Amino acid sequence: MQRSLEVNNPVDTHTPTTAATATLEMRGISKYYAGVAALNDVSVEIRPGEVHAILGENGAGKSTLMNIASGTAQPERGSLIYEGEVLGPLSPTLAASLGIAIVHQHPAVLPDLTVEENLRVALPSALFAGDPAAAVREMLDRVDLSVHPGDRVETLTVAQKHLLEIAKAFAIKPKLLILDEPTAPLGAAAVDLLFDRVREIVKTGTSVTYITHRLAEVRELADRVTVLRDGKVRGTSAVADVTDAELLALIVGRELASTFPPKHAGSKDSPVNFRLKNFGGPGFIDVSAEARRGEIIGIAGVVGNGQSEVLRALAGLEPFNGSVEIEGTPFDEHRLLSRAAFMPADRQGEGLMMSLSVRENAAVAALKKFKSLLFLSRNKEVSQVGASLASLSVKAPSMDAPVSSLSGGNQQKVVISRALLSDPVLLIADEPTQGVDVGARADIYGILREASGRGIPVIVASSDAKELEGLCDQVLVMSRGHVVETLTGDEITEERIVSAAVSSTTEAVSASQVAREAYRPSGIRRLLQGDYAPSILVAIVIVVLAGYLLSQNAAYLSAFNMTTLLTAATGVAFIALGQTIALLTGGIDLSVGPLAGFLVVIGSFFINAGKSVGQLVLGLVLMVVVAAAVGLINGVLIRYGRFTPIAATLALYIALGGFALLLRPQQGGFITQSFQDFVNTSYGPIPLFFIIVVLVTLALEYFLRRRKWGWRLRAVGSDAESSRRIGISLNRTVILGYLATAILVFIGAITLMGQYGIGDPSQGQSYTLTSITAVVLGGTSLVGGRGSFIGTLLGAVLLQQALNAADFLQLGTTYQYYFQGFLILVAAILYTFARMRRKRRALLA
Asked: How many distinct structural domains can be found in the chain?
């Protein structure tokens, strides 16, 4: 690549020996965010059977360009030509149908769904024809991902999530495969396997676009390379025709003197400022080390051998035994938690608050520095945060831009900025340059070295042995939670680090695998960790409470009482089932109660004694139409009107209550007795409509677990952005979800008509809170993505059982509210505690 390419000829005219139509040609692509050009007149050609690397600094436009190529983003100008045909607007679904697959830098996986569900919701159904279980296992084995298909994805490690993303891409046998920083979290073995798979598909004619910050990977894998800087193409060339120095100059726009700063040159007799002795905790044991001022300690090893666990314990996030001394002062986990700065490997999951701004994320750990008397000084905050971000060359539209709008590398720089602003006594970095460009890496290395020189102990874990070789003064090599070798001085070489890690595990591989299998959840344990655990708990409570009530009063299980209890639970259950759908999408529907009451009011004008069958049918049809209209209005307001779910459904809550009062200012319109008798039909002690609600619940549960409707519903609530990237229509899913909610409320209104027999404008108001209570008791998450209809049905039964118990024990109406509040409180505590434990297990996985 010649320097003249940067100005005179951004795209070379190199053609392969065998002329062929380009798989994808991107011509004159421009894309703007908030008026800032992410891409400016970019043209790139991806040819059949080649690996085309895209290089550039963070924020250069690489991921944006690939998002456009995969249909995730739309360009303002330019055209896409795929296999010689000009494409119109491209969506992720259309891109997948054309054979375009992408592995995103941040995996488009859905944390609340299982591994199998992630595959099945994202991939064509034809791939699972015949034996779905065998197809899933084959997809996982292709990338050597050793997890159970029933494991929830939130429990996977960052590397495993990336492998799952890679498995999805390879499964469709793409014509064009886009890999955006796929190796950043992977160990050496996983990287080698990925490269082998890439070479295999390239031989079949597949085109591969490869985004990376690692020049060594470009040399190993790519045929051609294009460099982007500031949203423009700076040059394209065959890899063999360009030197690393030329590539670096085009990437950063300047010459880089050296990637790594000089190592510590102090005396070995200088005092020790950091000491670990017999340090042990979850996943590691007996780690000992010491460092002097200016020295950086590195931690190496095959991914998953205790490195991250050591760092988390040093950050005070996990309990430990042994001792930690900094400047001669002992620190326990509580002091470390408040004084150490931790830069986690998973910057989006742990490192950043994605809904906050760049400034807020950088400043949050250093608020005391910005105090002026009793208040925070905005000027101090802006000045110091701005200086920190500028020193790291963070590219953002402004400090008040959402941190989610930044590129992955710039997000990492914000994490580093926060750590440095907090004035830590210990700086802990887990994969600090993961997804960071070469220019910024040099800056980060310099900052870590400068912090160490100021006397702050610095601990760095990295899967890149070359990085540890160039940066660290000593390296602890770990295997299965033990330090197997400590390297210092000239001993720290890439070869020694890799050799120590590999040789120490060669004889223990099978044992290690056995250990992982031993900790893999069994089927029963997986069930208890899944969405059905709350259902099991609620069922147990129902049985225990029934046993207690029976011991107090033998009439508790009488046919009359069972019919009364189940009839009351049926109406609540139908409305709560609808509420469950809304909550699964990550929303809520406050209008369900007033809608049910309004529908009963409408029915009270048509389903009366003396009215014809035609009028009765007309009344039911009108109720269905009104319910459907309300559901569609809720969905449209949320998706197209950009209302929050609470605001949209609250508006309908108020409106429906007003309409009900307009139609019937007071109670009136008695429902015909024959209709009430039908609705209240029982078979023994079991009401007909309770049987119907059980069947509806089972049908909904089946579709929730085994069909794409349910997977998409939960996917949107689990992670809306990832859902969009894998081709799920958010608008359609949410709107149809609220429509289904309203239809279930309609059925619930039918049961209320049978129970109350009169049109009452205030009748449905309480059912909004009651439905939410039943859903919470059933274990459905209030933030979306997880839950079960079975749990909701059981929650409705338990709720009515608690109310029934207060009457049976003659405790009075007040105790009914006490019981409801107590049940909600217990459910919230138990489910929150369970979720915290799941997250902790995931972090230690």
From this structure: 4
